[in-house]
Amino acid sequence: MKKNRQWKKWIPIYILGLPGILYLLINNYMPLYGLLIAFKDYNYSLGVWKSPFVGFQNFEYLFKTKDAWVITRNTIGYNLLFILLNTVIGVALAIFLNEVRKKVSKKIYQTAILLPYLMSMVVVSYLAYIFLGDRTGMINHLLTSLGLPPVKFYMTKTYWPLILTFVNEWRNIGYGTIIFLASIVGISESYYEAAELDGATKWQQIKLITVPLLKPTVIMLVTLSMGNIFRSDFGLFYQVPRNQGMLFSVTNTIDTYVYRALLQSGDISLSSAAAFYQSAVCFITIIIFNNIIKKYSKENALF
Amino acid sequence: MKKWKRVLSVVMMLIMALTMVTGCSSKKSDEDPAKNVTDDKTATDNGEEPYELVIEVVNISQSFADIEAVQEAINEITVPEINCTVKLMTVPIFEQGTRLSMMVAGNEKIDLVNTGLLTSPSTLVGEGLLADITEYITPTMKELAGDLLAAGTFDGKVYSYPAILYPGTVACLFYDKDLAEQYGIEVPEAISKSEDWENILKQVKDSGMSAYGISLGDGGGASIMEFGANLDGLGDNNTLSYGVVVDPEENTTITNWYESEDFAQLCNDHYDWMQKGYCVPDSLTNGYTTIDSMANGECFAVTSSNSVGMSQAYLSNLTGKNLEMVMVREALLTTGYVNTQSWGVASNSENPEKAVQFLDLLFQNAELANLMNYGIEGSHYAKVDGTQNIVAFPEGKDASTVGYGGDIISWFGDTKTAFQRTPNTDEFFDTIDDYGLEGAKKSLCLGFTFDTSKVATQVAAVQSVVGEYKPTLTTGNVNPDEVIPEFIKALKDAGIDEVIKENQSQLDAWLKTK
User: Which stretches make up the ABC transmembrane type-1 domain (chain A) (predicted)?
Assistant: First the structure.
C-alpha cells in the first residue's frame, strides 16, 4: 500500500521527464530498429520490414579476404597506440601548461596546441603533403640539398605508422590537454601549499598530488576511447595517405576498407553490416574494460 | 486547494509534453504552396486536373532565381500537350547520390530522376528506387532509342531511358598544337600501338620543352590505354572488376583483364616511360587531374575518353590551350556508356505514365528541351550570331549570374535538335552521328547488365584489391614484373574467377534470349 502511494507521488516528476524520455526514445532507441538492415537485402520500395532476410550474408565481405586481418590489426593497433600517447602526452602537456605563470603566454600556448584540432583533415592532408611530396615536398628538398637521395614517402610503407601517429598526435593532443588542464585547475591550491610547507619538490608534488587526483579523469577518457576502439578516424587514414594503394597494409582500417569496397555499389545493407560489427565490438570492449576498472578501482568505473 | 494545484501542474506538464511531440510532426502540410497556385490556373477543358510532375534537375550548386518563370513557360507547353505542370527541383550533384533514396524512403513527391550520373540504373533497380515503365514507353520513344533502350532494361522490364541518344564514347589524345608547331613535333593522325605513344613522348622529351609528354593521372578509373584497348567493362568501366570483353563488337568471352598480356604490356610501357622521364613524375599524389596538368602547362598532351559533348572546342576552352585531337579508339557503344546519363521514374511516383509522356514530349519538342536546358531566350540565353543552333549567355551575364541554367548537369531532350552552348560550334551537329547507333561500333553485350547480387561479397573484395594495386601499376610507379603476379594472386584470393564465371553464365543466358 505504501509503495503504491510512493509511485503515485512521483507521477508529476515522470511527466516532467516525459519530453526527455520521449526524445531519448525517438532519437536513440527507435532507430535501433534500423539494425535490422544489416541482416536484410534492403530494398527502398519494400521498406525495412518487408525486405528479404539474408542472415549474416552481409557480413561475409568483412571477413572473407586477406584484408580482414590487416584492417582489424590496424584499427585496433593504431587506436591502442593513440589512446596511450594521447593520455601520456596530454597529461604531461597539461601539467606543463599549468606551471606557466604568465597569463598571456599561457593563453598563447593553449591556443597554439588546440589550433590543429580545429582543422579539417583535408587541410591536414595537404599540410602533410607539403612536407612529404615527391617533387615539391620540403623534406625531399632538404634531402636533395644535402646530397641525399629523395624518399618516395607515398610509396614506402615503413614510414607511415610513424607519420600517422605524429599527425594524429599533432592534431588531437590539444583537445585532450584542455580536458586534463581543466581538472588540474580544479585541484585545490591548499594541497600544494601544504606540500610546499613540508618541503616537497615540484616533481614530488606532481607525482603525489596532481597525477593521483587526475586519475578519475584519465580513467574516464580512456574508457570512452575504448568505446571507439573499433572505429577509426576516416580522414586520418584516407586523406592523409592520399588513398595510396602501396600503403594499404599499414593505412587500411575498417572504415577505409568499407569505404573503398562499397564506393562503387553504395550498398546500404553491406555498410550497415560493417557499422553493426563495429558497434558490437566496441560495446563488448567497453563492457570488458569497465569491468576491469570496477575490479581495481570501483569508484572510478563509469557504470 | 493544494490538491487542485497538483492537478493543475499535471495538466500543464501534459500540455508541455504534447506540444513538444506535435511540434515535430507538423511539417508535411505546408511543403509546396506552388502546387495550389499552379493548379488553380491550369485546370483544363476535359475537367481533369493537370498532374504536377516533379523533375530532378541536377546542377553543381546554384539555386536558380528565375526557376518559377521557367516553370511557367514550360507549363504553357506541357499543359495543352499532355495536361501536366512541372515543378523543377534542383539537386546539387554532391547530394544527388543520396537524395533519391531519402525521398523514396520518406515518400516525398518526386517523379522524373536522373540515373547513372553517380549511381548506375541497375543499382537503383536493385534497391527498389525505380519504377517499371515498360508499358508506358511510346512507339516514338522506342524508335528513337532503338537498341539503346536495352541498356535500361532489366529482367525484360524497362526502368530507364537514355538521356543522350548519342552516347558512344571515343578514346582520344589531345595535344597542344602551338607547342607541337614550335618544337616541330610530329603527331600521327591516329594512335594504335604502344610504339606510337613512345614515338610522340620521345619527341617531346628530346625537343627540350619544359613540359612533360603526358600525365598518367592518379590511377583512379580506367587509364586511357585501357579504353584504347577496346574493352567493354560490362557495367564497371572504372575498376573493371567484373571481367572484361575485349573487342566486344565481335566477341562475348569474359576474361580477367588484369591477367591479360595487354595489361602487362600497358604497365610495362608506363613504367618504362616513367623511368625515362616522359610523364609527370608525381601525378599519383599531387592531386591534379590530367586536365589540370594540361591547363597549367605541365604536359604536352592529355588523354581523354570523350562523349559527344566533350569536343575539341570544349576542352580547348577548359584548358586554355589550342588543342588538336588524335583518335585512339573510335566511338564504342556499351551498356555502361549508355547508362552514364539516363532518365528513370522514382518508384514512389504517383503517375509514372505522365512522367514517361513528358519524356516522350521532351525528345520531340526541341522548344521544351531548350527551355529546360537553358531557360528563356533573351533573359537566360541568346543565340550566337551566324550559327544555327549554338547559344551563349546573354550580354553581361555569365554562368554564375544568369537566372537559370548556369550550371545544369542534367541534359534534356534530343541532342540532335536541341541547342548547344558555346564553345561548341555547328560542327558539333555534323559529328554527332558518329556517336550514335549509326556511326559507333556496337558492343555485342549492349543491353546486358551484370546482376552482382549473387557474388556481392566477392565483388566488394575484388574492387578493394583493384584499388590497392592498380593505381601504382597503371601510373608506372612500380615494376610490373614484381607487382602484377602479386596483384593477380590477390584478385584470385578475392574471388575474381567466381565473379567472372557468374558474369559469363548470365551473359550467355542473356545472349540466348536476344
Answer: 72-289
H helices of chain A, in order, are 2-9, 11-24, 47-50, 60-63, 67-99, 103-114, 121-132, 138-145, 160-185, 189-197, 202-205, 211-226, 234, 248-251, 254-262, 268-296
Fold of B168-331+452-514: D-Maltodextrin-Binding Protein; domain 2 (3.40.190)
Instruction: Find out whether the peptide bond into A161 is cis, omega within 30 degrees of 0.
Output: no
- C-alpha pair distances (Å), A205 with each of A190, A247, B136, B208: 12, 45, 83, 70
DSSP of B31-99: S-HHHHHHHHHT--TTSPPPEEEEEEEEESS---TTHHHHHHHHHHHHHHHHSEEEEEEEEEHHHHHHH
B240: left (phi over 0), alpha (psi -120 to 50) or beta: left
Cα separation of B97 and B95, whole Å? 6
Q: Which residues on chain B are in Cβ contact (under 8 Å) with A135?
A: 281-282, 286
* Chain A CB within 8 Å of residue B297 CB: no
Q: What is the DSSP string of B8-24?
A: HHHHHHHHHHHHHHHHT
Q: Give residues 55 to 84 of A whose Cβ lies within 8 Å of B.
A: 57, 60-61, 64-67
Domains B40-166+340-371 and B168-331+452-514 agree in fold: yes
Interface contact flag, A262 B9, Cβ < 8 Å: no
Count of A-B CB contacts under 8 Å: 126
Smallest Cβ distance to A257: which of B101, B282, B464?
Answer: B464
In chain B, what are the domain boundaries? Answer: 40-166+340-371, 168-331+452-514
**Closest-CA residue in chain A for B98?**
A266
Cβ atoms within 10 Å of B37's Cβ, excluding its own: 12
Residues B359, A128: Cα–Cα separation, whole Å: 50
- B110 vs A: CB within 8 A: no
Tell which residue, A38, A44, A60, A41, has the closest CA to residue A52. A41
Q: Which of A95, A82, A83 is nearest to A181 (CA)?
A: A95
CATH T-level topology, domain B40-166+340-371: D-Maltodextrin-Binding Protein; domain 2 (3.40.190)
B461–A11: do the CB atoms touch at under 8 Å? Answer: no
CA–CA gap between residue B374 and residue B69 (Å, rounded): 12
Question: What interface predicted TM-score (ipTM) does this complex get?
Answer: 0.78
User: What's the CA gap between A71 and A254, in Å, rounded?
Assistant: 5
d(CA B168, nearest CA chain A) in Å = 22
Q: Which of B104, B465, B477 sits opposite A45 (nearest CB)?
A: B104
How far is Cα A177 from Cα A113, in angstroms, rounded to an integer? 9
Q: Is B471's Cβ below 8 Å from some Cβ in A?
A: yes
**Residues B97, A266: C-beta atoms closer than 8 Å:** yes
C-beta atoms of A135 and B470 within 8 A:
no
Whether B343 contacts B114, CB under 8 Å: yes
Cβ–Cβ of A12/B347 closer than 8 Å? no
Interchain CB contact of A49 with B (< 8 Å): no
Give the end-to-end CA distance of chain B in Å, rounded to a whole number: 87
**Whether B363 contacts B357, CB under 8 Å:** no
Domains, chain A: 83-118+160-300 (1.10.3720.10)
Cα–Cα dist B350/B359, whole Å = 16
Cell numbers representing residue B41 in the block: 490556373
